[in-house]
Amino acid sequence: MVWPFTSSSSKESNASATPSSSATSDKLSTAVEDTLDKVEHEASEMYQSTRASLEGLKVTATVSSSSMLSSLNIPPSMEPYLITTAVFGIATGAVVFYRTRLRRIPTPAYMTPNMLRGKRIMRGKVTSVGDSDNFRFYHTPGGIWAGWGWLRHVPTTRKALMEQTIPVRIAGVDAPENAHFGMPAQPFGKESLAWLRHELNGKSVLIQPYARDRVEMLKVGYGQIYRQAGSEYGGMLKEFEKIEAKAKSRKIGIWSQKDMVTAAEHKKKHLRGEE
């Protein structure tokens, strides 16, 4: 860049430099035009070459397909059956994919035995946490790829959610009881409920029998191993026991109490009237 000096010598210098600058500009313009012409020519050649290659591949694929069908010796009369079989196979695959990946399960009544054995992971959103060891789950199969969050949305009102959620009880955990059905609350009942609400309420989660949530509650001391009849641990009872023992040794949560009463004993005493 040339700055406008005021001295006459500078003006003379600038004037003498003008022809040279103009010549340089003309050379640069010519070089740019030549380069553009060259690039355009090479691009055209590349396009023609690519098109010719694709046409060759198309012909080869057609010949190969014809040869393969000919080598199978399939009579023309069988072609309708083959087409029908192919269509049926595609339709069956689509139905299976929909039933296992995209069909929404609104309530437990729609769940198959395989789902209840932990053979399927379900994606959805926690709509409410009612107690210290259970919550309600709205199934959103396919996640964002099926439109959830931008085309389809989880209802927010109680009326819209009615008969549209799955009640989930965290497997293997028995949390302190809160006051209900005339039964007084246990120590750490409120803390356990607040912790679970903070961790899950309104969040997108994956559920499956023996999911991670039950381990976390044992770690922080807001739950203990559920040992009543019909308990399921998914082969992880020993792991549960180690985690529970560690929480006990640290005396955190419910284990900080001097005379700790289990949730099962609490319910037995106050709901059944047993001493």
From TrEMBL:
Domain of life: Eukaryota
Bias (Low complexity) ranges: 1-25
Keywords: Calcium, Endonuclease, Hydrolase, Membrane, Nuclease, Transmembrane, Transmembrane helix
Region (Disordered): 1-31
Start and end residues of each TNase-like domain: 120-257
Pfam families, sorted: SNase
Gene3D superfamilies hit by this protein: 2.40.50.90
SMART domains per record: SNc
Membrane-spanning ranges: 81-98
Cellular-component GO terms for this entry: mitochondrion
A GO term for molecular function: hydrolase activity
Similarity comment text for this entry: Belongs to the LCL3 family.
Protein name: Endonuclease lcl3
Gene label: LCL3
